[in-house]
Amino acid sequence: MASPSIRIRNRVGAVVRRCGLKPFALEPERILEKAQRASGFAVEDPMFREGLERLVHGLETHARLTTFGRLAARGTVQRSADSRSKVERTLTEHPEIANESIRAPVFIVGMPRSGTTILHALLHLDRNHRAPLSWECLLPAPAPRPEDHDDNDRIETVRKEFDQIFRLVPDFRRKHYMTADSPQECVGITALNFASFQYLAMAYLPEYHDWFAKADQVQNLRWHRRFLQFLQSGGIRTRRWLLKSPVHLLRLRALFEVYPDARVIVTHRHPASVVPSVASLISSMRSFYSDDEDTLRTGREQLLIWADYFARFLRDRRELDREDQMIDVFFDDFVKNQMAVVDSIYSRFGWKLRPEDRARMETLLQREQRGKHGVHQYSLDQIGVTRPELDDKYAHYLDFLEPG
């Protein structure tokens, strides 16, 4: 539920709209013009422009944004456009960045709410790994230098924004805690291409999702690669990239086309736990932007989306036959013994875990006990989905999880 201050602003905004005014309008051309003024550069990428137009159309026609939500959404979209323009200017002025080598990146892929966040955080403590950080994705330009990771104005800006979100939507802290310097998902990178699941967490955008799910994901991940090259150009080049997003289930084929030497960690959890959990999380996020969030609609939407994504993943996995570059991690095994799972990953890929990095991982596990930020409670009943219905939609995945 939104805070009292947000509710007051929204009531004032509703009165203004009834007077025929449209505060905080979302207009693609104005967004692009402002981004060009901020960066001195115009992005010509067709996918970027089409994604922006489709996103804005969806926000205007389906999202039912409150006044506060409209202001927040406009700020998010504008910053994405500004950041992309600044990155593109650097890439254009310094073509040598295209020679930055991305070797054997690691992707954590799997059902959302299946332990990907804590696994990402653990592996990030290996000093051979580098993950994009929240502040690097939100405010990437100029490319971060080694000394920028200790402290800088961009980190503080993002830290204050996250603190404000937690104050305005207290429920969100319990469901998905994040910090300015925590590892960020790949949705934060593709958000700068306006082809990202991140925007679907902001609002109900059915037409935008239809476009996104059919879009050229090779093109999307080529931007993703260029962004990593941009980050590397700041001077940190010795680490193996550590990346994460459940949305890669949708584009395994594209992932291996753009990153042929990738290593893929596939996390698994029973969809009866995953679907209500992710639906609950997304409902909380959408309630930040709209008073019209429908939990049952979101539950059914997420039920179908992840069933489709995993069906595509299983099909592509069979056809690609890249098993030597992949490992499966099961949620129950991970909960029982996280470090044993970490050891199995290192063994599979022939990595060495230094004692000091292992100690850092063990310290994190002791500190981040399950439920530290509150217990996230959810059930199928809360989203109007029955167990037989879920089992039917995920029959292909359940056959994989429970063969025979």
What does this protein structure show overall?
The chain has a single domain (105-401), classed as 3-Layer(aba) Sandwich (Rossmann fold), CATH 3.40.50. The model has no long low-confidence stretch (mean pLDDT 91). The chain has helices at residues 4-18, 28-39, 46-61, 67-93, 116-124, 134-138, 153-168, 170-175, 187-190, 206-214, 217-232, 252-258, 271-286, 295-320, 331-336, 338-349, 355-367, 387-393, 395-401, and strands at 106-110, 129-130, 240-244, 263-268, 326-330. It is mainly α. It is globular. The longest helix has 27 residues, at 67-93. Helix content is 57%, strand content 6%. The chain has a 5-stranded parallel beta sheet. The chain has 19 helices and 5 strands. Helix 3 (46-61) runs antiparallel to helix 10 (206-214).
Strand count, sense and barrel status of the largest sheet are:
5 strands, parallel
CATH superfamily (homologous) name: P-loop containing nucleotide triphosphate hydrolases
Uncertain regions: pLDDT < 50 for 5+ in a row?
Answer: none
CATH T-level topology: Rossmann fold
Distance between the termini: 44 Å
The helicity comes to 55-70%
Structural class: mainly alpha
Per CATH, the architecture is 3-Layer(aba) Sandwich
The average pLDDT is 91
Q: Kindly provide the radius of gyration, computed on alpha-carbon positions and rounded to a whole number of angstroms.
A: 21 Å
Number of domains: 1
Sum up the structure in keywords.
Rossmann fold, globular, 6% strand, mainly alpha, 5 strands, 5-stranded parallel sheet, 404 residues
Summarize the structure.
The chain has 404 residues and is mostly helical. Helices cover 57% and strands 6% of the residues.
